[in-house]
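Hi everyone,

Forwarding the result from last night's run.
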Amino acid sequence: MSTDTRNLRNALATGQLDLEEYYKAWLASAVAREATLKAFVSIEEAQVLQQAEQLTRARKQSEALGPLFGLGVGVKDIIDVEGFPTGFGLALEAAAYPLRDSAIVRRLRSAGALIAGKTVTTPLASRAPSHTRHPIDPERSPGGSSSGSAAAVAAGLLPLALGTQTNGSVIRPAAFCGVPAFKPSFGLIPRTGTLIQSNTLDQIGVFARDLDGIAQVTECLMGEDGHDTASHRAPRLSLLAELHDEWTRSPRFAVVIPPAIGEASEAMGAALHELLEFLGPAAERVQYDYLIEDCMDAHSVIHAAEIAHHYQPLLKRHSSLIPDGVLEQIKRGEEISASRYLAALALRERGRAAFQDTFDDFDVILSLSALDTAPATRDSTGDPRPCTPWSLLGFPALHVPLFVSEEGMPMGVQLVGAPWQDGRVLRAGQWLMSEAARG
């Protein structure tokens, strides 16, 4: 089974791979793997085969086939899919039963994708662990909160999956599981039909086996939908075309690794040192230590205040199902003053402006996606701090898998760009992966 997204799509669209037979085989493989991986909430065989039949009919009738034709997509279980309960990672009694698809699922279907199922999220997209296992070492954590999506793509069960990130919930599990993942510019993808934790911080993210898949699915999802005000006037970016533009020079990397994000492990530090030596003059350290500290504080304030607001209905109906960490965050948010909240919002805007000089001089920021490999315990989803400033500022961020530890666990780095420079971030990531493979 090809892991190259374009080749797989073309094989399905041309009939080289029989779509119905492909998904019958996929179902058998997925059910077998799920016994240990536990990446899906459930696998609905009838719905998968029904979609495969519909797509086969469209191909045989010579209908225009979308750019994601036949590609299976996992959808994080805080995103509405018609016909599936939205469980939020909680017990079934808290589930919602949507009458329609979320905005992004409607766009997936329009692009010809096949909704393969709902992928596991941690409870209420929190830092509490889920039951998903790491695809390489089942005794390790796959991260969170988009644990099922990251694990399913890393295990080769899916070419594409959707996640969400309020702090580090896309980039961190991608780093632990060893797959590319992308959190686009804030507002590029609408969130209508998705559980809102923080209207200021929540962002849709995507996982794929390669950057072609990330660029293609992001293009299909982008643009305002008339409901999510964050996506109002979001531009239409040509990500796939920009991904394959040739660099006329090596991209320039601003290395931003401040103390506030935590200390990297010995293995991660050694891998980063090797990478920076390889990049040589193309990478230069840039100091933003005090600003990043302020960003961490501002994120904490905004997150707590807004989760306290948005989770009130769940608190009233299902307080016994809410993880202790979320209850503590809600309590902290209820105690935040209006002036402190507004100051945090203002810091967010100042921070976005403060990075402009760096983006004038460098193509992207290079930072850590995680401080270490996947935790050697299932009781933790890892430390989100390396992702926190970029989630606050809403900059596009890409995890690039580059290294393998002595224990065989994946590691990589995070590339961050200016708002709406998503294509440049992907292109720099493609360059870095290609150069690392050659080096």
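The longest strand covers residues 397-404.

Cheers,
N.
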